[in-house]
Task: structure prediction
Amino acid sequence: MSRYFLSIEFDGASYSGWQIQPDAPTVEGAIEEALGLLFQQPMDIIGQGRTDAGVHAKAQVAHIDISPDDWHRFRKTTTNNPEEDRSLLIHRLNRLLGPTIYISTIREVKDDAHARFDAISRSYSYRIVSEPSPLRTNQSWNAGGHWNVEVLNELADQIVGEHDFDSLSKTNPDNYTTLCKIEESRWIIEGDELFYKVTANRFLRNMVRRLVGTMWYMQDENIVTSNTISWIHDRKDHQIYTAPAHALCLVGVQYPSEIFI
Result:
């Protein structure tokens, strides 16, 4: 039995998130269905984390275990060329998955490598436009008004480091902790678009969307403070806002190099 990491890009507009749900289309469900057809038996994948309905991914990662017998059923020959097998699997998977999900690479990893638990960090990007843009409707938030990047970056700088983000996340009883270590948090302008870039060791449910939404509304409330605790934890001076899901994209997941074969 060998383990592989799949690199996955998807447009989340047509899906109810990553994780399999009853009676709802999901990215994980679509990939497992395609794998089942190719290997002629149920095949499970484990994602590095789940995304909410409407969220996109440039670099989602999931792992899968494939045995020699599985490969034999897939290729229907006794030949054995691992590189060709992986290339053919990518080709056939993408033909089945259609235009909204794309498998870019399949890399062999050590048997105990885990897509979720071995991830060092995750990176997200949130895209905002200042006026309606039909061509970008499904990938950006038309927040209206103008942005104050200086104030937004003051707020963004204050969350770098390890903090408790319980108040900026959706309650999840499965969380063993609500502490997250933020490595990067910044707002940048690219042309007529504003992006929030954030990297952390882990994220809680709705955390990035609440960071974006709350900072966006705080820029006009004149309550920027040098005290990080004030705006992350204290709701006396401001509300917690959740930005729409469709402008959020998972853009990177980092792993230690030694897990790859």
Notes: The mean pLDDT is 91.
